[in-house]
Amino acid sequence: MTMPLTRITHLVEAELGAVNETILRCLESPVDVIKKIGHYLVDSGGKRIRPLVLLLTSKACNVQGDAPLTMAAILEFIHTATLFHDDVVDGSKLRRGRPTANRIWDNASAVLVGDFLYSRAFQMMVTLDSMTAMRILADATNIIAEGEVLQLSHRFQPDIDESRYLHVIRLKTAKLFEAAAQLGAVMAHQPSSIENALAQYGLHLGTAFQIIDDMLDYSAPSETWGKSIGNDLAEGKATLPLIYALTQANATQAQHIRQAIQTGNLGDLSIIQEAIVSTGAIDYTMRRAAQETERAIDALSCLPPSPYREAMAALAKFAISRSH
What is the pLDDT of residues 46-63, one digit of tens each? Predict the structure, then answer.
């Protein structure tokens, strides 16, 4: 039985609360919209998965002091900045069942506040006085942006294969998970073997997390998922369920799928969902995510047994069992 997220977060509940306080403090500004963004972040209902990875890894590596709280807030700022920019690019109106920042304010404000979050994150990095941490986060931020550009270049292209799909999500999503896990070891001055193993944990966890996100776009009720079913298809994104379905579909199904990716037209969504189910694409996507989860858990063998290592393994299992 998979450990629920609440039991995982309970181990660092006080720290997650302190991260929220750090977020609000670091977004104090005479600019009204920036202050409002701080409360928007804290009240957004997000899972705080990246800060959670950082905090659990730090605890597992026995990091002392408040540096993990600052680092966790930095990760959330970088992640949120990417979401603000993504929602503008994609024209999204809902995230986690709530209006996106660009819908509440406007596109220009969302982009500029995203820029502010990036720059504030780097200001905070300086206070930690760790060139290694700065290098990891600077590289991660650059690679995430590269992944977003690559994904944009792949839109409306039905011939994207699984390897290219995985390459994109490892850049745009898994990289920040990788950095979060690696930084826990860096702050504890662990040897490179542990640092690299935990980076692999984060990479595979983040990959599994994104694969399941993409699967839920075709299988989760919108009231649970918090966004409209078929959003990825409307944006011309060929994600793993569609990629696999195309390899197994009959000629008629394949034609509908290819045309939908090329145009972003959701008129045949029900036909495409039926094709995804009948070709076993949901089951295949789940298996691929489970393989990533197993690799993430295997990487944790570098750590001594502890409640935090157990929670990190449970978090990997949660990534593929969730419905939102």
Answer: 678 999 999 999 999 999
